[in-house]
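So, can you check what follows?
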Amino acid sequence: MKVYNSIDDCCHIKNAIITLGMYDGVHIGHQTIVKQLNNIAQKENGESVLLTFYPHPRKVIQPDFKLELLSTLSEKEDILYSLELDNLVIHPFTKDFSQVSAKDFIIEYLIKKMNLHTLVIGHDHHFGKNREGNFEQLEKLSREYGFNLIQLEAIQHEESAISSTKIRKALKEGNIEYANQALKYNYPLSGVVVHGDKLGRELGFPTANLEVDPSKLIPKDGVYAVSVFVEDKKYLGLLSIGYRVTVTNSREHRIEVNILNFNQDIYGKTIRLEFLGRLRDEKKFNSLDQLIEAMNNDKENALKNYSSYK
């Protein structure tokens, strides 16, 4: 997969079969579109292209909006690479660019600069200034400028259309099962291991405290079974998200993972987690003994139900 950092850099793409959008999470619906792109590109002797934007348009148009993304840019690239996309174009999104009309965007960018052959869009796609561009307008432009246009049906899961919004909602509710099914992979989270207060070690459950990308969506507070990737090795872990209400009065939100059968110094290293399942809610216990008992139960539960994922 070739990666371009601007539309201006990708002027030599042959018979571009293009889709566009943020593709946050690259869920099943997005994956279906990419597969369709690749199939069309093969038939038309062309190349599949995803045009996306950075930073997220919401961040430019509404700077104070709290952005919670399913995938970082690097995670998105990894997933698209695995789908064998030919070209990924990451165009800078600016205030000036946000003012480009839908018609000018199609003509000046997709047709003149990207050699548009076929445009493939999802069932509810809108684009351009104020999201004014829609399928009806695209149909008129396709006839006028001679490009092919394909609109795909919505991909269903549990009798409703899959969307990044629904996956975000599920994660905020702790519904890891739905999120993983809709994504068709286990929801990931990466972070740099930073120093904590080492309370977990005193309780017999040493943890790695993670500092994560502030724009990455963090699932609902609680305890989760996770796969942990340290360099090229995979481990089973217990991830705690919350405020450690039993052992401290601090209102500092923590993300910390106890990596099972692991004893290495990983401070300063970046590790990757994949959510396997939710074990329980965050709870304030009456004593440290009760907390330790609960943590041992978490470990037993994870080993019993998720060891095969390791």
Q: What stands out?
A: The chain is about 30% helix and 25% strand. The CA atoms of residues 20 and 51 lie 5 Å apart. Residues 288-306 form the longest helix (19 residues).
